[in-house]
Amino acid sequence: MTFLQPWVLVALPLVSLPLIIHLINQRRFQTVHWGAMMFLLSARALSRGYSRLRHWLIMLMRMLAVAAVILAVGRPLSRGWLALAAGGRPDTAIVILDRSPSMQARDRDAADTKLDTGRRQLAEAVATLGAAHTIVVTDPARPPLELDDPRAIADLPSAGPSAAPADIPRLLQAAYEHIRASAAGASEVWICSDQRANDWAVEAGGWSSLREAFAALPQPVRFQLLAFPQPAAGNLAVRVTATRLERRTADRELLLSIVVSRESAEQSAAEPVTVPVTIELGGATSTVELVVTGREAVLANHAISLGAEAEPQGHGRVSIPADTNAADNEFYFVFAEPAPRRTLVVADDEGVAKGLELVAGIPPEKSAVATVDRVPVAAVATAAWEEAALVLWQAPLPEGDDAKVVEAFVNRGGQVVFFPPADPDGHEFAGCRWTEWITHPEPLAPETWRTDEDLLANTRAGAALPVGELVVTRSCGLAGEIVPLASLTGGGPLMGRVPTQQGGIFFCATTPAPRDSSLASEGIVLYSLVQRAIDRGLESLSPARQLDAGAAAVAALGGTGRDAGAGWTRIAGSTAAPVDASGTQPAVYAREGRLVAVNRPAAEDQARSLPADRIDGLFQGLMFSRQDGRAGGADSLVQEIWRAFLIAMVLALIGEGLLCMPGRQRTRAAPDASPFGAAA
Amino acid sequence: MLTDRQPRSFLDPQSLARLAGVPLVARTPMVGGVSGRHASPHRGSSIEFAEYRKYVPGDDLRRLDWRAFGRSDRYYVKEYEADTNLRLCLVVDTSGSMGYGSAGTTKLDVARRIAGSLGYLAAQQGDAVGISCVADGIVQSLPPRRSPAHLRLVFDVLEAARPDGGTRLPEVLHEFAETIRQRALVVIVSDFFMPPPELESAFNHLRFRRHDVATFHLLDPQEVGFQFQRPTRFLDLEGNASIFADPIDIADRYHRAVESYLAELRRIVLASGIDHHRVLTTDDVEQALARFLVGRASGQGARR
User: Fold this and answer.
1) ipTM of the predicted structure?
2) Is there a contact between B253 and A37 if contact means CB atoms under 8 Å apart?
3) What confidence tier does A672 reach under pLDDT thresholds 50, 70, 90?
4) Which homologous superfamily is A341-541 in?
């Protein structure tokens, strides 16, 4: 419980006033010479239990009445989740909203979503607290918004639902920057979230520095979390995992892979559910029924005939009936004929170059076309970069203009795999450089590699690549910041990736040459990683791209602000979304024959909530408290409860009056004095 | 007949004149030395016929009933009731507690008026009057005598009585029961602040000795009502003890104790056949005495 006027609590010692008056009264006694001592002695000998109890109860009631008056004047606030001492009115209230799709969930019997409920409750709470400044942070890419009336939070367009994950650390960073820049006084940061792991990004590593930054602020900052950790009951999500356009004899055919998944693992044991999946494509609607028995149901390569005259690209939408979360009931997809699988090979070793050309030139499917261009190191700048999906580079790292060309290629979404040159020269690219060749006396085998993602991940069927069967005789040392994908026995790197916003930069510490490793002879690993890299690179070349809503999609569509999406036209999607919401709302955009579909990230379909103690650990050392809310909950987070204290005071006074009323015995002894004598 | 010319503060001549119209009679036969107004257990020469008795040699021939002889040819002697005087023993409690009076009049003042008035009325009708002042023991005592001069002494004792000391009334009553030789009317004026079982024993002892016992139970209204408002230190009038109490806190239990005591006393006086009268210090003493006298007059003539 906190108070809007906590200084009134200074008067709390007045609670002892009844006690003091009682003690003073005790000292103002009179002296009487008394004859009937035998009755007094008898009275003292009689049971004093109830009398003494009543005496103390009367005292207690009086003290309660005084305390209730003082507390009522202090204007107490009911803040069930704020187990903190009286804090008073904050100078700045910063509201951080998790607007991710999972926050669109609602209870079966409630109309409001988690986000709506949180916005409404926070609006009431901040308005009741009466902070001098109210700031809303909804997007790390936008400046915090100051509101004149805190109640506007509930209706703020930019605080509406989004398809992008929330990225709580960056939102907190924005809040921190605002507090520091505005030199605000005592601040309260209110976070409304459903604690999804992908929104909180606890693995990102920035939390410790964020904690230290907040702790170092001179002004007190208190964090309040309004959490909605309950998964949406019975929620199903639909997603298109792959689209492929194929030509069968005369017709074009679209192969759609659709997944319908249950939100939480607990629902997996539930009864099988038959879900009608509606596919809208080119104005036509078809329905496919999927039976979800376990965690998810997959409809792989569902063929839809487009006709002989169909456009080589297009877009559509799949949807399922409404359930407890409307945000994951539809998914936009785009498709186009795949671009040619063009690979550039830059190598100074002829043997290595031939091996790389071989693995890059064989397409994984018969219908695909793969081309490989050998580019001399000197002619790098003039190569056909704009059509390439992958560059295999076994030469000294690029520098100067070559480096710029490669960087532009990567920023466009292209992939580069670097192999060590014969003679490392110490040049650096993307923060990494080759050091020197190491010849291993005993051939080494890869000890660990990442099987969950990236180029060496397990196959879709779940089988691992035979990376462990490779033999490495020579490897080249690597220096710089790199995310290891595979390590040799003894800890030396075999393969790594440089973190990038777009595209991919990979380093492989050995070459396919027989003198260096068995990459060529055990060709499965090399072939897989090269073809996977080509697939990734093709995504940026394809005229139809699927993007996850978020910063990447915003960047791809031209940034944020009023000019967002410049040149791009929204051809499908919710028209109710704000104009400047490109990249954060599910939609399909088109520009100059290219199509982009923006949808929620796959992680939003998985209800992996962080446990409460994990969240508490993130705010360790800071003033933090939390309360679990419920979607559609009508309770206010903060409300003035002085009326309750006045009622308590009245009740205490009534109780005191009842206890002070004379008992039946007190009126019984006196009147029977004289009639008795006459009767006897 | 009253020869005491000295004005006494506890005597009201007008009140006594009004009360003199009702005789003071005993509820039981008295054994007196001279003729009086009270019934005697013996046969005497009053005009009230009692019974026939067979003539035995030695009887006075003047008391032979010749009419009865004429009817039955047997000798019968006609007997009449005897009237005698009574011995009024006034027992006045002069312990410290009798000095309490919340309205200006102490219980001892009321006791003086009651005892003095009864003594005067008894002397007026020729009865013997004696007095004993009792506190820790017998403070002052005069045996019953009929002479008017003796009544003056009784008044002197009453006037000189002062409330002091503790109460040993039951023991003194036991002593009186043994030492008063003939039947007497014993009037006890006290606040009876002592355990009722002790009183019961003393009353039964007196009744066993064929004494007619009457009690005036004096109480102050404050002692019954206990209407104090402030915390009070109560100093014992019969000792050095003191009790500090908040009346608001203790009043209900005090009233319960008083009520229990009065109920017990009522049971005792009913069981012992005591003529019991409770008088508050604020009550009209004349009315209390009139009630006492009238109550006795209605039972006149009882003989055992």
Assistant:
1) 0.81
2) no
3) low
4) Class I glutamine amidotransferase (GATase) domain (3.40.50.880)
